[in-house]
Amino acid sequence: xxxxxxxxxxxxxxxxxxxxxxxxxxxxxxxxxxxxxxxxxxxxxxxxxxxxxxxxxxxxxxxxxxxxxxxxxxxxxxxxxxxxxxxxxxxxxxxxxxxxxxxxxxxxxxxxxxxxxxxxxxxxxxxxxxxxxxxxxxxxxxxxxxxxxxxxxxxxxxxxxxxxxxxxxxxxxxxxxxxxxxxxxxxxxxxxxxxxxxxxxxxxxxxxxxxxxxxxxxxxxxxxxxxxxxxxxxxxxxxxxxxxxxxxxxxxxxxxxxxxxxxxxxxxxxxxxxxxxxxxxxxxxxxxxxxxxxxxxxxxxxxxxxxxxxxxxxxxxxxxxxxxxxxxxxxxxxxx
Length: 336
Ligand code: AHM
Ligand code: MG
Fold this sequence. Notes:
13 strands, binds magnesium ion, about 325 residues, alpha+beta, binds 2,5-anhydro-1,6-di-O-phosphono-D-mannitol, five-stranded mixed β-sheet, globular, eight-stranded mixed β-sheet
């Protein structure tokens, strides 16, 4: 029976990626190995997040516990785990993490062709109250691993090979795109494996939810203010949209992918480039949105066409359902 097949035929991430790679005979399994190291990092963070209260992992970096050991804040710990897992995979050459001011250039003896940009634990202000947080990543590939410069990662998001996130929520969910659609996997803790639970995610063409930090409204520009006003007081006879804002990008984007609608972190007078980081927040989420049939826009252009000039650059971002983003684009086009 169909139902039985679902229960006994477990599509793990590794199996899924191997299937995808088999369509590229030239591939030597390097991507599968790289991804398994990212997945390992996510499993570690998932278990650490679940134990955060218990293990007293929460605390300021540099504080010492009763044994006199240094306590690391969860985001610092997560970063170390990802950096070590990625370096030891032997498949990476440059790493860019939100936690590290400088990019990491992998020692030539361990170098591979992939660059990974990531935010190891995004939304960390939500840790202490148990709200969902996540890891976000994007992957580029270099031509010549023996000759790499920072320019390899200062590239438009459309050059990414793959992107994804892992959400540490009521369950642990891994969402991935390697450029041919988006798939979601849920961690089965008893197996320690992510099993495909959300094949071929497509975002609804139009949604009923908007998601934004409205506390910044007094500093918004005209088109953003007009759009949010429209969400609340539609003039075309449609129902107002619902507001949902978690304040964890991974959770807000995950809901947007599944239910549709828009997530925005616009520019405002205080932060003319918004808050979110181009390389490891805006790009991976924009990549996933487009792969799921939605759009990602900066207020000026397609988000994936941005070219960052520094690794920690920020950009305003509007992402979500195709039709909803069209409305935002029209408001920005009318404003110039
Ligand atoms: P962080 O990288 O310092 O955790 O900040 C990123 C987070 C995102 O997850 C979220 O979308 C945004 O900050 C929320 O910002 P705000 O609190 O300004 O609404
Ligand atoms: Mg972040």
